[in-house]
Amino acid sequence: MINKIADSVAEALAGVQDGATVLIGGFGTSGNPVELIDGLIAQGARDLTVVNNNAGNGDSGLAALLRSGQVRKIICSFPRQADSWVFDELYRAGKIELELVPQGNLAERMRAAGAGIGAFFCPTGYGTELSRGKETREINGRHYVLEYPIHGDVALVKAERGDRWGNLTYRMSARNFGPVCAMAAKYTVATVHELVELGEMDPESVVTPGIFVSRVVKVPRVATRAGGIRQ
To answer: What is the pLDDT along the chain (231 residues), one digit of tens a residue?
Structure first.
């Protein structure tokens, strides 16, 4: 009998290895799986490569993971916001490596990993520093840059509803990068606020099928913790 429900975050994350590439869903604080990030800090895996839309907000969530010293490299689209002081301090001190990826490319590189695509040509970034050292090609009069998939060892996503097979739905904009992160990783852990019996979820409403999900953990619903601005 397939049952992907974990009793705790610690149980779900016990196997994360040092040096892992961790894909984390979320757009800023929307859809950020804070409980799983806190669990990863407690689990202690180090030398991580983290992939996320941005580089943390305030001092909690992803920013706390960066502060812990467990992250060697971050791949993201927006490393600098008014409240990204943790990343800023680490980067200026040479304590973290950054790979900057345009947002659409970031999503497509993870989607390509999940779809089994070896590489793809994209016009974004052509003629800029972001295309330096990459193969380019002119196709039908337009210039493109060759991009490669981003594969994850682990994905951490925040969903709204799930079942024991790992089928997931999301809440509004909290969906964002969650589905492509889940597709692109070998091992995906999702938090949900509601666990339902098999058959209660309309198959047409399922966003992430259970085949992409390894473990599901139910967590309490709490208000999103915004990063805030320091005065």
So the answer is: 799 999 999 999 999 999 999 999 999 889 999 999 999 999 999 999 999 999 998 889 999 999 999 999 999 999 988 888 999 999 999 999 999 999 999 999 999 999 999 999 999 999 999 999 999 999 999 999 999 999 999 999 999 999 999 999 999 999 999 999 999 999 999 999 999 999 999 999 999 999 999 999 999 988 766 555 443
Residue 101: what residue type? V
Q: What is the pTM of this model?
A: 0.93
> How does DSSP assign 171-222, residue by residue?
-GGGGTTHHHHHHHEEEEEEEESEE--TT-S-GGG-SB-GGG-SEEEE----
Length of the chain: 231
